[in-house]
Amino acid sequence: MMLVWGSATERQTIGELPAFTCRTCKTHATHQIIHVYGWGHLWYLGAIGSKKFYSVCKTCQTTDEITAEAGEKFGKAKYPFNQQYGWALWVVLIIGLIISSMVASGNRQDRVASYLSAPKVGDLYVADVAQLMKTQDKFHYAVLKVKSLRPDGIEFDPSVYFYEYGIDAAKAKVKADHPGFFSDESVVLSKKALQDMREKDLITDIERRE
Question: Rounded to an integer, what distance in angstroms lies between the CA atom of residue 166 and that of residue 139?
């Protein structure tokens, strides 16, 4: 996805100053107020940055910078919504993503706790097995398929391949039905070991295929 960002300078006539004598052409008349402002954006949603105001003689175009107070008193600047309030939309979007992530995380934790308390053959676990393997290898996430239930624990078929990140292992679950995805050598984890893994958030997800 291409990232669209940048900045721009805009110019607009926003009103007139009360009549006064131009220092160049000596014409006594009202002067236009020109407002020049800069704004920055990400995907065209941005915020106003620098602001400057100028008086321009209608006769000779002599231009002088004036104070923001004078410019805003006698002129009325109008900014497009995306330039003035675009940043607020980004704030709302970011907050929404954070809340959505928190809700998803809460649902995932509830699902893991529920399925772990009442496991079924065929459940697919995504787990960090570094401690079980006693390894420092960066590829330490695996998919574990429940093979059988035992009074003191669960027998799993581990995936042949290991993954660097939990999300990669989670994506790999779609291949769980493919021949050769799981190893022929099963592993047994006790209920206590599984509970310890859950408390340490090493079991990142459990999928139940009905």
Answer: 10
Burial category of 111 from C-beta neighbours within 10 Å (exposed 0-12, middle 13-18, buried 19 and up): middle
How many C-beta neighbours within 10 Å does residue 37 have?
A: 19
For residues 127 and 203, the answer to whether their CB atoms sit within 8 Å is: yes
Mean pLDDT of 31-49: 91
Residue pair 185/107 in contact (Cβ under 8 Å)? The answer is no
Helix, strand, coil percent content, the chain, rounded in steps of 5: 30, 40, 30
Residue 31 has a CB neighbour count (10 Å cut-off) of: 24
Bridging pattern class, strands 124-128 and 63-66: unpaired
Residue 106 has pLDDT above 80, yes or no: no
Is residue 135 over pLDDT 90?
no
Residue pair 165/148 in contact (Cβ under 8 Å)? The answer is: no
Nearest to 82 by CA among 74, 90, 70: 90
Q: Terminus-to-terminus CA distance in the chain, angstroms?
A: 36
**4 pLDDT higher than 80:** no
Q: How far is Cα 210 from Cα 196, in angstroms, rounded to an integer?
A: 27
| Coil/strand/helix, residue 142 | strand
pTM of the model as a whole? 0.58
